[in-house]
Design goal:
about 130 residues
Length: about 130
């Protein structure tokens, strides 16, 4: 699959794919006889993984670190797992923060009329004081 097809399939620009390859966020992509990138199923798996990790908020530097560890072989499995666990912990923290925001907004929406009537009543009371 060429770079344009891969770009469309994974909703990642061709420039991003080239950048990821250049900085080592994905391994070097196979090339055809004309020198054009020719993404095979393994290359696509790396693109999918990189997109998932980027969507989860992992930095390019951490993604490159993961690829470097991967290239070093099975002895780095614990380090790779720890890196992924750290990212999972970050996501869970963000989910908890968003859940708290959701609870606050939900409460405000559910009590909006009561709060607004009370607030408006206070404003009306101030108007009568300032208009005297």
């Amino acid at each position: 699959m060429n770079i344009q097809e891969t770009s469309r399939k994974y909703s990642v620009s061709a420039n991003t794919l080239r950048y990821w390859e250049r900085v080592g966020a994905i391994p070097r992509v196979n090339r055809n006889q004309n020198g054009y990138r020719d993404y095979d199923s393994e290359d696509e798996e790396w693109v999918s993984f990189a997109k998932c990790m980027r969507d989860s908020g992992i930095t390019i530097e951490r993604l490159v670190e993961y690829i470097d560890l991967f290239r070093q072989g099975d002895s780095t499995i614990p380090s790779r797992k720890a890196l992924l666990q750290e990212q999972l912990d970050e996501i869970n923290k963000k989910i908890d923060e968003m859940a708290e925001i959701q609870r606050t907004l939900k409460s405000k929406v559910e009590n909006y009329e009561d709060q607004m009537l009370s607030y408006e009543g206070k404003l009306k009371g101030q108007d009568s004081v300032t208009n005297k």
